[in-house]
Amino acid sequence: MGAPLAEDTIRDSLREVIDPEIGINIVDLGLIYEIELAPAEAEPDAHDVSVTMTLTTPGCPAGPQILQQVKQVVEGVPGVHSMELDLTFSPLWNEEMLSEDVRWILGR
């Protein structure tokens, strides 16, 4: 058996999800607010994962595609039993949520 599932593992896997309009992954965009892991009752070596996230705008045209990819990516991580996605717009996303690397790349 490998290392136990950790929040960082989920966060790293979510870097695969790219906002198609901006071309930057959703983690560095600051769209991931919270990741919670709980032991799965049905599988002792697995976890139920909850991801709270936002989109750049409530009417984001790429929103459905991004949410579908998030679900697929997290469910594909070894050790994930189930995945719950909570979409919120509180607080609203803003450019201050960008990672330092992305700010540097964008010149902000």
Reconstruct the topology from this structure.
Elements: H1 7-14, E1 18-19, E2 24-25, E3 32-39, E4 47-53, H2 63-75, E5 80-87, H3 100-106
Parallel strand pairs: 4-5
Antiparallel strand pairs: 1-2, 3-4
Q: Per CATH, what is the topology?
A: GMP Synthetase, Chain A, domain 3
Specify the CATH homologous superfamily: Fe-S cluster assembly (FSCA)
Cα gyration radius (Å): 14 Å
How would you describe the oligomerization state of the chains in this entry?
A: single chain
Top-tier CATH class: Alpha Beta
Secondary-structure content class: alpha+beta
Descriptive overview:
This protein has a 3-stranded mixed sheet with strand order 3-4-5, covered by helices on one side. Strands 1-2 form a two-stranded antiparallel ribbon. The model has no long low-confidence stretch (mean pLDDT 93). It has 108 residues and is of the alpha+beta class. The chain has a single domain (7-91), classed as Fe-S cluster assembly (FSCA) (GMP Synthetase, Chain A, domain 3), CATH 3.30.300.130. It has 3 helices and 5 strands, in the order αββββαβα.
